[in-house]
Q: What sequence folds into this?
């Protein structure tokens, strides 16, 4: 089996050459007694033209057959500028069928009408589509670029175990029954967090791994039970240096994969700034439409929603949807209100600025002076639409306006979808207060280090204690994040205490790890990037499933292999486990 | 926190420079009021000298404390040629304790008297030992070199799922209970075999992955339940080209990692030649001591063991242990006999060639002419020791003599342990006959392709049907192997039939995969390398555990985290499984 060229290679300069090609029949069409075949391989498509002498033999050739073709390159009479090889075609002199193919249950082309479930069931055909080939090649380019970058910076790729110890609490572990130790279980890692910290304790100083992680979380539309993480940790480096290394990695990937040179350093927003301006810690910064804090502006306005919010130490924020007052009918505004309500806002207040003055249901609550102050604060001009949410809870105001902002950004085409706008969000709060359980939880993991200047706030003012933690954000998606870690024994104990851990909980959950921190732990920190998400955004896809070779569907099954499946009783017996008969299996 | 240099960096050219270093206290010793500290980091060790002014402050500094030291580089009065930085030392001007350390339960140095269980329990300390750091860095160099090689040859790194479908039969799967589909299970992959073949069906043409694999096999001294495989597959290429790509990869690794340029192409032995010459399909070819087939030579000798073996269509083979007759006492020969018996030989026959003639218990069975023929066949000279095994079973003869050969090779120092002798073993048999079940089994997996010229032997002569399969062997270890795969529907059916699979078995075990082969499968083949083993041999280690960051011990537990562990009943309930109470847990 031989080929002289691949199917993406031939150009006008090859005209007259004798060539041999191999590929799949992507398309076959007859023109009288002539037959045209588009021959496809990983590298592209070349048009083959067969004269009438082949007509009979070609009758058996169907789509997705694999052919080897001998012929000579000729110039096309009607060139196809959309194809890399569109200037030429190959006049066949001989051909051979390498393998046949059954009629495929889906069209193997970028334009396919197959349902996603069909695409996943016949994934090997779906992956033949040039778009999917391109996606996985882009993903490979990303990992290659990342590895080159980290290798050249002296990071060591170290593999950590996939059969670990289960940690109760946190996201759900996938368990793996042990046969040798019946009744005991390994757990698949949710991330290599503890191991990468122990590698710092081990003195490796610079570690990375592109690691699979597993979370048995409740399923959402676009979540996978296994995902891939670029995991990085380093010792003795300042947060500035860690961010520099992180953004350098992103810049190299953008250069290598997209040919785009992004400007460094990336800008940084504090978590507080991000919440104030965008209402969200992963803002899409490709467009403005920023939130305006109106707490002081509307403090005296006699509108019950605002008043109640502010009296309960809550918040009022607004957005100026510039030059859209006339575009937004009542119905469109109702639509925005629905979005706000999804995020628990009780409603959405609005005003329209027009030549005739300011209109809207809440206009009457403003004195002229109050209105002028408002318009100035929001930089409002004629035909601007102003939207407001007030609520006792900061997160309700932020969540609802952030959702409206993202919706409007897309709807009003406020940005070029092909742009990539990266930023760091830094200085996250250490703790999150949970109303239900009335206690503070670590916003990150309990080994996240407070900012040096906030260490004493662990006990005195946990709410305002900031973490030396950071996220990297792209176009409204969190790509990843990290932090400095606590490396001092006594600080770790204070952090555990502030989080309400009992000694017993610490021992049972983290004892083996905390033990390790006592033997000379270097200052260390790092980050992790969600590779699937990076690949999705760089490929311009809407779904993680389009950048994973063999993904699971939204009910965590593989439509191709049908995993998971029942297994033989003998297998379970050997593991010393049984299936509870009273539990019913959800249908797939 | 700052350092101007690392601890492996300073040389005579730096004398007079002011430097800042960071590292762990590897050793501290007093010389009068002077204190010497060896400061260790990932890059090496530098000696720091503290004058008497530091004596008091240094009292609290103990081994494995982390120090930051400011000082100036001075020439050592007594240089240490064994240390890269042995020409200099740093005269401390100031220091700071970055972190303290508890007394370590083991000595953190290459020379340690810690038991392996202790080393594994405190793995983070064990990994600080320069030897272990070196091992993991070598491992990283190997993967980096492999990736560079394959990336540059246009291979795409594609991740395949870790949560798969269980395949009954074969090695035991690790199962993962599904929470969403209660009573059903995922399985961790034993290898990405089926997925990599489907990627060829998908048209990627050149795939690789450095993938974790999982096998719940019975434990042996040096086996891990998870291991790492360099997995490679390609389409449209001849076996010669696949081997060329494989050995090119090995050559690059040897060049990049060991600085050794091995000669290519590697020599190839057929499986039959390997068995004949070495009695084993993974021969250590660093030394001779080859087996001699004596079936025809001793056909008429009136010695019952030989006679019985040959009459039962068995075999007689010998080894000439050159110039060792006088060295091998009766006791030493008994020792060899024990080895032979371990491999089921009924005994070990022997002769010693001396000036006075040939001596030994079996000498009397030979006529003079028979003895002369034997000595000629074995190229025997004075003081040679000749060893023989005869048995009705070929594998008994081979196994026992191969074990004796490997033993003698090491014992008699017949090779330089620092040499690396690679070779391919090719043309493996397709089938292995199992006496117990009286049927043929695939020696590889059932998708292995027979050699073109042997296809018809599938039905007519399965015993002599050879596979287009190959192993790569180094110094007596199988590093990996692979094959061409069956890509034609009808041939696959013939192979399944020859292996005694029923249609039902095919459907239930491989149905989803075999379905995929029908839509235009290209000719394809590939190989897989055991990365852990490659790393072990290149590091010159005796155990896989020395090249894995966090290995399991021989009872498949992690002495550090204590995984596996019992889990909360709530976790099991959520998965719909229970532990069988009548099963006892083996003690760890």
A:
């Amino acid at each position: 089996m031989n080929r002289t060229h691949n199917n993406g290679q031939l150009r006008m300069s090859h005209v007259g050459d004798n060539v041999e090609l191999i590929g799949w029949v992507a398309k076959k069409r007859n023109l009288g007694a002539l037959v045209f075949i588009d021959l496809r391989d990983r590298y592209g498509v070349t048009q083959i033209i067969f004269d009438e002498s082949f007509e009979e033999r070609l009758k058996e050739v169907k789509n997705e057959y694999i052919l080897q073709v001998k012929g000579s390159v000729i110039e096309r009479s009607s060139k196809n500028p959309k194809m890399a090889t569109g200037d030429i075609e190959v006049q066949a002199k001989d051909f051979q069928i390498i393998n046949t193919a059954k009629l495929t249950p889906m069209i193997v082309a970028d334009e396919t009408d197959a349902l996603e479930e069909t695409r996943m069931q016949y994934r090997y055909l779906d992956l033949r589509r040039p778009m999917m080939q391109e996606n996985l090649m882009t993903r490979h380019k990303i990992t290659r670029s990342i590895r080159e970058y980290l290798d050249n910076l002296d990071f060591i790729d170290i593999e950590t175990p996939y059969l670990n110890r289960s940690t109760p609490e946190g996201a759900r572990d996938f368990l793996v029954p042990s046969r040798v130790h019946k009744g005991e279980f390994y757990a698949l890692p949710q991330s290599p967090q503890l191991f990468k910290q122990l590698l710092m304790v081990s003195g490796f100083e610079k570690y990375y791994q592109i690691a699979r992680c597993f979370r048995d979380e409740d399923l959402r539309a676009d979540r996978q039970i296994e995902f891939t993480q670029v995991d990085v940790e380093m010792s003795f480096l300042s947060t500035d240096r860690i961010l520099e290394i992180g953004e350098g990695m992103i810049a190299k990937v953008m250069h290598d994969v997209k040919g785009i040179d992004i400007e460094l350093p990336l800008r940084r927003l504090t978590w507080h700034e991000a919440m104030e301006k965008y209402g969200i810690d992963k803002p899409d910064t490709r467009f403005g439409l920023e939130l305006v804090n109106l707490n002081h502006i509307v403090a005296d306005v006699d509108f019950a929603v605002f008043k109640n919010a502010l009296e309960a130490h809550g918040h009022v924020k607004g957005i100026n949807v510039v030059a859209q007052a006339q575009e937004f009918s009542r119905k469109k505004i109702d639509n925005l209100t629905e979005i706000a309500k999804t995020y628990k806002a009780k409603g959405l207040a609005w005003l329209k600025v027009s030549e005739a003055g300011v209109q809207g249901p809440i206009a009457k609550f403003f004195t002229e002076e109050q209105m002028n102050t408002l318009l100035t604060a929001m930089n409002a001009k004629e035909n601007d639409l102003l939207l407001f949410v007030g609520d006792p809870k900061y997160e309700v105001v932020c969540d609802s306006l952030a959702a409206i902002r993202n919706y409007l950004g897309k709807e009003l085409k406020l940005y070029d979808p092909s742009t990539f706008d990266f930023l760091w969000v830094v200085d996250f709060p250490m703790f999150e207060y949970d109303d239900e359980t009335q206690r503070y939880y670590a916003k990150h993991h309990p080994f996240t280090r407070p900012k040096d200047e906030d260490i004493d706030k662990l006990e005195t003012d946990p709410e305002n204690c900031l973490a030396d933690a950071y996220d990297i954000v792209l176009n409204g998606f969190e790509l990843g994040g990290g932090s400095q870690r606590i490396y001092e024994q006594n600080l770790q104990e204070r952090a555990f205490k502030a989080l309400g851990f009992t000694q017993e909980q610490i021992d049972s959950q983290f004892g083996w790890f905390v033990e390790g921190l006592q033997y000379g732990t270097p200052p260390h920190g790092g980050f992790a990037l969600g590779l699937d998400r990076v690949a999705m955004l760089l490929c311009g896809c809407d779904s993680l499933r389009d950048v994973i070779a063999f993904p699971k569907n939204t009910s965590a099954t593989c439509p191709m292999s049908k995993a998971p499946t029942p297994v033989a009783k003998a297998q379970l017996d050997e593991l010393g486990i049984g299936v509870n008969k009273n539990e019913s299996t959800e249908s797939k």
Q: What stands out?
A: Residues 130-152 of chain A form the longest helix (23 residues). Residues 157 and 208 of chain A are 5 Å apart (CA to CA). Residues 583-588 of chain A have pLDDT under 50 and may be disordered. The radius of gyration of chain A is 30 Å.
